[in-house]
Amino acid sequence: MYGRKVKLRFLFVALILVSLILTVFLVLKSLEENVVYFQSPSEIKALSELDKKKIRVGGMVKKNSISVKASEVKFIITDLKNEINVTYTGAVPNLFAEEKGVVAEGFLKDRNFFSATKILAKHDENYMPPEVKEAIGEK
Amino acid sequence: MFKLFQPNKIFQITSKAPKYILFLFVIVLSIGLTEALILSPEDYKQSDAVRIMYVHVPAAWISLGIFSSITFLSISGFIFKNKNFFLISKSLAPSGFVFNIIALVTGSIWGKPTWGTWWAWDARITSMLILALFYAMYLIVWRIYESEEKVFKITTFITIIGIVNVPITKYSVDWWNTLHQPASINILSKSSIHSSMLFPLLIMTAAFALFSLLIFLMKYNTELIKIKNKGLDRI
């Protein structure tokens, strides 16, 4: 029902799309390390060699782990399997709290100790009014 | 099916509709803003900062939606050699670009008080920036080439490359670790946003969609006037 040229143009567009998707997929697959914004403590534990470069570690701040001495903040990032101790000097974002998401940027001292130069708070996708949160908490 | 697109009939609609759409837009926007800024509750964690969401999220949705539409129309226009499809894409693009910029800027303003940074090179944010670059390329091509044939081909090519980025933007938060939180609204599963906050979000989305429609109709009307002035009676 359509002319030969129309079909050929359709084929042309389809081929470009398929090859592009494949290319982008392969590129992203091979660059995966750089696409992820942060690594979890478990991934840090599994590293074969420690990098001197600046990296980011993310996870949840462990309950009762934050201790503040003068301007130094110490806390533990956990992904519920593994943990990493973080030290940081400076101001923390408003949403930084225990049992909440956090991303720390800085340098690894070893597999268990991390000295952060920057702390970012990561919040989750749940939005609700405070009353609702309280009601859920009481259950 | 293409006979439905008769310039004179379309022109009648595009020259009269903007008035009514503008009226509707003002009403929906005022309801949306009242809901979002005054009536909706504050978030348990972010308190009032959550209100940026009512601008940020609809803007991001619409910019992604418009880019997908532009791609679909450009490819159809390219395959069926239909000039009208290209003119519709051309008229849609500016509002998509503007909403893309709004999403980036409000995201940055939201990021500072919540995450503690204006900008992060995480997958969601970077892919949104790439989308803005594709919008910019698309719009520039319409201005630099005189020959329509050339513009049609190049813009189609740009949209085809750009469209690959759209699903990456959408799913980046699920595929990789990102600073950006995952989607709160899912079609298939229960949304993780409370209904009192979902309602203003949807109203604001409707308002922004109406605004895009308004700008689209005005732009498209101009294109039709240009064709009329050239003395061509068909698209």
Gist of the model:
Chain A contains four helices and six strands, in the order H-H-H-E-E-E-E-E-E-H. Chain A has 139 residues and is of the alpha+beta class.
Features:
heterodimer; A: about 140 residues; alpha+beta; OB fold (Dihydrolipoamide Acetyltransferase, E2P); 2 domains; 5-stranded mixed beta barrel; 4 helices; 6 strands; elongated; B: mainly alpha; Four Helix Bundle (Hemerythrin (Met), subunit A)
Cα end-to-end separation of chain A: 64 Å
Number of strand elements of chain B = 0
Distance between the termini of chain B: 14 Å
Q: What is the H/E order of chain A? A: HHHEEEEEEH
Q: What overall form of chain A do the CA principal axes indicate? A: elongated
User: Using DSSP, what is the number of strands of chain A?
Assistant: 6
Going by CATH, the homologous superfamily of the largest domain in chain A would be Nucleic acid-binding proteins
CATH class of chain B: Mainly Alpha
Placed side by side, the strands forming the largest sheet of chain A appear as: 1-3-4-6-5
Give the overall pLDDT of chain B as a whole number. 89
- Most strands sheet of chain A: 5 strands, mixed, barrel
Helix content of chain B: over 70%
Strand content of chain A: 25-35%
Description:
The complex is a heterodimer of chains A (139) and B (235). Chain A is α+β, with helices and mostly antiparallel strands and 139 residues long. Chain A contains 4 helices and 6 strands. Chain A has helices at 4-30, 32-35, 41-45, 130-138; strands at 55-61, 67-69, 72-78, 83-89, 101-108, 113-122. Chain A has a 5-stranded mixed barrel. Chain A is elongated, with a radius of gyration of 23 Å. With 235 residues, chain B is mainly α. Chain B has one domain (17-39, 48-183, 200-229): Four Helix Bundle (Hemerythrin (Met), subunit A), CATH 1.20.120. Chain B has helices at residues 7-39, 53-80, 83-114, 123-144, 148-175, 195-229. Chain B is globular, with a radius of gyration of 19 Å. Chains A and B meet through helix 1, strand 6 and helix 4 of A and helix 2 and helix 5 of B.
